[in-house]
Amino acid sequence: METLLNYIKQNKAISWVLGFQLFRILLLPFMGLMPQDAYYYLYGQNLSLSYFDHPGMIGYILRLFTDIFGTSIFAVKFADFFITSLTILSFYKLASYFLSKQKLQRAFVLLASTIFISILSFNSTPDVPLLLFWSLSLISLYKAIFESKKWYWVFAGLAMGLAFNSKYTAILLQFGLLAFLIFSNKYRKLLLSPWLWFSLIISVAVTFPVWYWNYQNDFASFAFQSSERTSSITEFKISPNYFFGAIGHQMFLLLPVLFLIFITFTFKYVKRAVTKFKIPQTKTLFLLAFFIPTFLGFFLLTPIYWVKLNWMMPSYITGVIIAGMFISKKLLKIQLIFSIVFHLLVSLQIIFYLVPIKSDDTWVGWKELATETEKLKEQYTDAFIFSNDNYKTSAALNFFMEDKVYAQNIIGLPALHFDYLDDNLNDLKGKSAIFIDSDKRFKDKNKLGEIDSLLTNKFKKVTELEPIIIKINNKQSRKFWIFYCTDYQP
Question: How far is CA 27 from CA 18, 34, 185, 247, 484, in A?
């Protein structure tokens, strides 16, 4: 133990990384439940081969950790923290294949200091397992290609398949692999190797549960993830807000220094390829093959489509390794200053909730809402409960309450995976219901004063009750409109 402590003291990079990880795990108990946590926890409580909006890996992980540690917010958050810690270690192993000791340490600190690692450590999303299996895929592919260790083709296939079972964007792993081999003079011959195609076949075989679930459900998940977005992109409406919003998100996730390094070397390598037809050295080409399609590909969409802040995250793995080749000690210090300031501000917001968040994407108020809803349930014992905001309120209440909480499919609207929970809504015919609707722009304590026609179409009578006001730090922070509905007609 003493030897280990001395090694850590002598290795500043490890000290920085452990410092950031210690900060994150100490902050975990202060984190409230996010709607995403609750929704993917719902995945795990309703085990399936796959799910409507994403494959099921994050749900399986949350089910495992809550079965081991018990159902609690901390158990959910600890699952994210643990898996992301494995991603950091996998990144270190991968980066060691490309960087000298000094540059490796800088890249290690660069990754660990980012906001996106903190987000993955605190918030349950499919990106949590995706980045782990993405990193493991690249480690295996490196071993298979550069060290000619054939059995690593098998491991690569397994890892690529598990990455796809985490999130569909993992298909870019196979795309990046083939792109690298096509553009690499030295390794192009591997396109004829049976081991390559065996690896790809394994990766597809591992994804069989996702394909079979889609086959059973009219390919609903694939259609959901592609058709709406494809139609939006083909409209080709230029929106500067999308573009500048994406830049803001990426500067926040990566912090300004790292983001600007990404932009600089992306421009440098693309310009060389386009104007001089110059291909980077083999190992750099390998890293770029798993960076450019994801980072630049999504970035090029930002002027015409709202690219979510997490879509580029897989590119960060090899992107940070490339950044480690260029970043100076001075720039790393500036990056760390930004990181420390941002993390301190984030921690103050999490612990003290200084700035109200006008959105349902928040970690405060859900448990208090569940408590107040339980009181309503005692008063209206015959009523079932439902909400209408895709998944957020319904998922959060399902996490905290013993009674089942329904979603907007009750009033005939699509409700993501709530539509696939095998609920027979006809069993609710004639029953009463409590409808909960979040007032995202909370301004006053008044009732809404109007009844949505979607409610009156499904219920014989709808009466608005007094809204639920949630106090955080003795301040009125969140508001939910409440409606009592009688005689449900599905």
Answer: 14, 15, 49, 27, 39
Distance, C-alpha 429 to centroid of its chain: 37
Give the integer Cα–Cα distance in Å for 368 and 213.
36
Alpha helices (runs of H) in 276-356, residue ranges in sequence order: 282-289, 292-301, 313-326, 329-352
Which pair of tokens denotes residue 243? 């573009």
Domain ranges within the chain, ordered by starting residue: 2-352, 366-488
Asked if 259 and 150 count as a contact pair (C-beta separation under 8 A), the reply is no
Residue 6 has what pLDDT?
A: 55
pTM higher than 0.90: yes
How many residues appear in the chain? 490
Q: What is the mean pLDDT of residues 28-54?
A: 96
Contact 163, 128 (CB under 8 A): no
Hey, how many other C-beta atoms are within 10 angstroms of the C-beta on 157? 27
pLDDT-derived band of residue 277, with 50, 70 and 90 as boundaries? Answer: confident
What does R_g of the chain's alpha carbons equal in angstroms? 24
- Packing angle between helix 282-289 and helix 171-183, nearest 10 degrees? 150
Q: Where are the alpha helices (DSSP H) in 11-56?
A: 12-27, 35-45
CB 468 within 8 Å of CB 476: no
Q: Are 488 and 428 in contact (CB under 8 A)?
A: yes
* pLDDT tens string 333-364: 999 999 999 999 999 999 999 988 888 999 99
Block residue for tokens 């280990």 = 4
